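Changelog-linked ticket: histidyl-adenosine monophosphate example.
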Amino acid sequence: MPSARAPRGTRDLLPDERAAFARLESIARDLAARYGYREIETPIFEQAGVIERGVGEATDVVEKELFRLAPRSDERETWVLRPEATAGIVRAYVQHGLQTWPQPVKVSLVGPMFRYDRPQAGRYRQFWQWDVEAIGDPGPAVDAEQIDLGLRFYHEAGLADVDVLLNSIGDGACRPDYVAELTGYFARHEARLPDLEAARLQTNPLRLLDSKDPAMGALIAAAPRIGDHLCGACAAHFAAVRVHLDALGVRYRVEPTLVRGLDYYTRTAFEYYRRGAEGQQQALGGGGRYDGLVEVLGGRPTPGIGFALGLDRTVLALAEADPSAVVAAPAPLAVVVGADPAATVDRLRVAGLLRAERLAVRAELGQRKLGRQLEAASRERAHFAVILGDELADGQVRLKDLLAGTQRTVALADLAGELRRADSRHRHGEAV
Ligand code: HAM
């Protein structure tokens, strides 16, 4: 085994896998444009405080999973690799005064995120998200629009069996009372709490609802539910989100214990799972409303909502759903080969002319015999071979249709046009 390896929890995306990611990125960008979201880019590292205050000090992400950067020991600022995009986007919204733009500001970003987590299938230390944010709209219609947008991404990607789990986790008016009641409930059962959960009870009791420890199952099932403690405004908001989802025909399941792992959420919270995989802690994506976050990061009180879908987990789910659907390497339209194995200059020159005409062409740059060159072209499923020989001196080449097995002589000046015409006839299923 080679001694130099990618860092634990990271992966190289070799061309087939990179192509699968590129396909998802292009679906995401296309959908974002159709739903009125413009692209934004923020740095992949932020001041530590932006993430600590934004995501919340008592979250796994901040407590355990931040990659801290210390380029110089005398540097007073500290930075962290971004574990998610929302805090950085909201920081940019405040920093650049985007509250003076027409609201809501709707932005989307595709990029790598970093969490120092225990690596396993679908859980990496560098992973990719498609992140979507609408800042400045209190909802409820935009909540439903976003939930529908995320679901549409999975459908267009080819995953039909994705479920939406939905909850409301209240706001500053109703959640404190609920958290106090929840804390009392778990405190009464403290003897039954695993160590991690007992510690969490002091710092972030809501997270106990999210515990995947089997010992917690029965306790969680009998715990008080946030849905029974929503204030009037939060209950009305949640009901209105559901009315909009129903009207759009978006199917969802209300999950009373869904709380999400980041601290900024208020009211609407949702997650996407592959059907039947809800118990496995591996959401395909998730998001929710964060009506207090802009203020936490120094802006005027401004509502917001967003979600992020994990591209790595989507690629894994697609491969599981249909292992045969790997993205094949694209075949070149033509390969330029030659009777004289040494005439690489001619082959490069002719390939260059065709590439300038925006055609996908490979030039044979090795010095093997013509028969071998043609075999290689067929193997890579090229449609045509452009064969250079003595007639090149008169401005002519031979054009061999490798699929049809036919061959004719073509003037070099007409070659690009001929290739384009023949290729489009082929694409439309006509005989060449
Ligand atoms: P999150 O639930 O922490 O939310 O992450 C969203 C998605 O990112 C997950 O559902 C998962 O697909 C993917 N993901 C997270 N961690 C990993 C990992 N270690 N390896 C592979 N994939 C991972 C957020 O990040 C929020 N910023 C979403 C949001 C946007 N809320 C409002 N706006």
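Closing comment: Example verified and attached. The pocket of histidyl-adenosine monophosphate is lined by residues 84-86, 115, 117, 122-124, 127, 129, 131, 133, 261-262, 283-288, 290, 306-308, 310, 312-313 (CB under 6 Å). The domain at 334-425 is CATH 3.40.50.800 (Rossmann fold).
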